[in-house]
Task: structure prediction
Amino acid sequence: MAHLTDQEIAAQTTMQPIQNIADKAGISRDAVEMYGNYKAKVDINQIEGNEKESKVVLVSAMNPTPAGEGKSTCTVGLADAFNKLEKNVMVALREPSLGPVMGIKGGATGGGRSQVLPMEEINLHFNGDLHAITTANNALAAFIDNHIHQGNQLGIDPRRVTWKRVMDMNDRALRQVVVGLGGVSRGVPREDGFDITVASEIMAVLCLSNDIADLKKKLADIVFGYTYDKEPVTVGQLEVEGALALLLKEAIKPNLVQTMEGTPALVHGGPFANIAHGCNSLIATNTARKLSDIVVTECGFGSDLGGEKFMDIKARKGGFEPDAIVLVATIRALKMNGGVAKGDLGDKNVEALKTGITNLEKHIENARKFGVEPIIALNDFVTDDDDERNYVLDWCRAHDVRVALTKVWEHGGAGGVDLAEQVLEVLDTKQNFHYLYENFLPVDQKIEKIVTEVYGGDGVDFTDKATKQLADIENNGWGDYPVCMAKTQYSLSDDPSLLGRPSGFKVSVKEVIPKTGAGFVIALTGDIMTMPGLPKTPSAVKMDVDAEGNSQGLF
Result:
């Protein structure tokens, strides 16, 4: 199987009709809205059940290499392993963004024998959710500029419009633009810019809403700019929250698909974890909690990013807690964190493992800091050596950490049974989950706590701009929001070159931006960009479609 691509492996799988998957999940026929034979939307108003009785398994990771470590693969494989053990399980994942699909990282549907299907459609346009979010975001931008052009009754200062346009692609040329040029009929000239769609506050709002009524309220609360008197202006004052919700009325419904082994999967929402909160939607997770005994879900990148945000933002807003945390680790990521160059990761190097394993050690500490016992999923690669595998396994056991060699890419659910059995043991033990911080702490103290306790840094350096923004946030009554850190995924610090377990560093916070609809504050650190760029040779150059309409080159 090693010579086959993920796409070729997926093409060999016979999918079940999506109605069969819905029946298996206990979703009534009235709740299923078909999108062809193998995809569906789920009407949550038709779902009954008590979500508080289910167990939530969070899959996180150590700091990754640029290619990723197979976290989605392990998430899917773990769910299939539970399925093999005859557990009532669902998996809840994020939707892929076209930016990384066409760029460097690839899709977000798993790999090998542990994929969600149909992988081609999910990795491309899927059911149109990201397009709807893009449209709603840019409709708001148009409404703002039109309001200013048509007399500006709200007194919006064009220099203080903070709302950016978005597109679902990495396009560095759009990071900073000027709109409204060309004369009076073309609008009011002002500086503007684009973010990637998954960084849009509307993405976060959709992912943190409980239903359409909640969605409309959160949309109305969005602050998109300030008046000439420096007072915040909201979507509610513009009176367009209803129109935006209308554009999102289908996108808010979770998408039902299946794993290769027929495990029901909800794939919904897609915020990045390095520039947004990095978790799939609350609606999808809570729907899965109503329908199954075990929900396997993931968060983006490592415990320092998506993991921390899952605990302090998603779990807090969703009213649930993780009952177990799986940390995905790979030999190659450990070696890279031990100083090995990307091109040499396939070479045996136990000494580098001994250095790099300090990175995994910090992520283990982070999970325990939230009061939940972690299980290490050592995701197996064909380039791994037995001495390397044994070193990691022995290290974990010597440090009283549960660990399972996980071979779900090659064997599907069967390759994750050991992992699943160890997770079940943790699920049978009461955890002592708690948040890292309480919301009443001032925002700067929350940021300090994340940096010192989760990243292992010595503190925070706030720019003058960030310091002023912190004061404005407190003055406007937004100080009790949780914090969403925007930081590189490659390091525990804000410097992507500081691998392993760095110490003695401070994190530089250049901006602190309130997201009043989503209900959190974003802290931009280091050189993080909310509109990424494509690599020198993007994955897109390998993609094609044949005369019959069959896609090619999707991983």
